[in-house]
Q: What sequence folds into this?
């Protein structure tokens, strides 16, 4: 394989874009990393070997892809933009890299081939849905770049402004660790805010798949109304958790004789712990769907 050019990553990136007449679209999350030190740091965080199969979402022209392929056994690279995917394919051929499976498709709509690690500078507009999708797969670790604000919400403390459906969902699935911040100056085009690189390490299953599915629905219902009382939030988002109409649901909730459940229903959504959501989701699911 050819060694990487000695010129800066910024210059390499701009030259390739100019060569192919590509204008990046910030609205599509096309912010390309041009800081070689940060690029190398991100890859090092993944601790790759030839035993690893890496999933990369939003490859762009291959800033991460090519270096990942040199260290991993295989890279599954998903890029939605067909013009960009063609450029990456040509770069892989020029570098004689043959261990990359390039998929030109929307990462939200494809079933991922088997992998054990994820390394991605994610398109920011799909940060939330793609992260929830990752939770449906088994993997060893993920090194992911997000907008700094989004990364904070991944670890939001109960009761804080950062506490969200995202942090509640990740609570049972992954340990979340912020590895480094990345300045907006490290990208072209320059985004409005800085980014953070986050490491996700899956937890041992503390919760069955069936219970997590119920928990997931209740969490989604609750955090659509994060400042409301739990009782009102669930009634307003009842279509997510049951098939009852508003009158039927109110009647069932009003007839609950458990003091513990009724106390929870009076709490505000932002004040309830994930363990409490899990308890409530299991109890109420059987009541509302009997």
A:
């Amino acid at each position: 394989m050819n060694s990487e050019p000695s010129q800066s990553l910024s210059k390499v990136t701009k030259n390739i874009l100019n060569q192919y007449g590509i204008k990046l679209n910030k609205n599509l999350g096309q912010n390309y990393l041009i800081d070689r030190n940060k690029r190398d740091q991100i890859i090092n965080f993944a601790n790759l070997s030839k035993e690893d199969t890496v999933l990369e979402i939003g490859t762009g022209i291959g800033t991460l892809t090519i270096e990942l392929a040199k260290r991993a056994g295989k890279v599954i690279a998903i890029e939605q933009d067909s013009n960009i995917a063609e450029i990456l394919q040509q770069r892989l051929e020029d570098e004689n890299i043959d261990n990359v499976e390039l998929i030109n498709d929307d990462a939200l709509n494809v079933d991922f081939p088997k992998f054990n690690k994820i390394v991605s500078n994610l398109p920011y507009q799909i940060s939330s849905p793609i992260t929830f999708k990752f939770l449906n797969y088994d993997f060893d670790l993920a090194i992911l770049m997000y907008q700094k604000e989004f990364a904070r919400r991944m670890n939001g403390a109960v009761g804080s402004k950062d506490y969200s459906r995202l942090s509640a969902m990740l609570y049972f699935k992954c340990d979340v660790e912020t590895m480094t911040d990345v300045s907006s100056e490290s990208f072209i085009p320059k985004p409005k805010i800085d980014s953070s690189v986050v490491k996700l390490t899956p937890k041992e299953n503390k919760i069955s798949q069936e219970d997590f599915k119920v928990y997931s629905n209740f969490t989604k219902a609750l955090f659509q109304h994060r400042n409301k009382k739990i009782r009102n939030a669930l009634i307003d988002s009842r279509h997510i958790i049951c098939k009852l109409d508003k009158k039927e649901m109110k009647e069932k909730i009003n007839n609950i004789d458990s003091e513990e459940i009724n106390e929870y229903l009076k709490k505000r959504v932002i004040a309830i712990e994930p363990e409490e959501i899990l308890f409530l989701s299991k109890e109420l699911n059987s009541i509302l769907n009997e």
Notes: The chain has a mean pLDDT of 93. The chain is about 40% helix and 15% strand. The beta strands are 32-33, 53-57, 74-78, 100-103, 117-121, 141-147, 174-182, 187-188, 195-202. The CA atoms of residues 179 and 253 lie 44 Å apart.
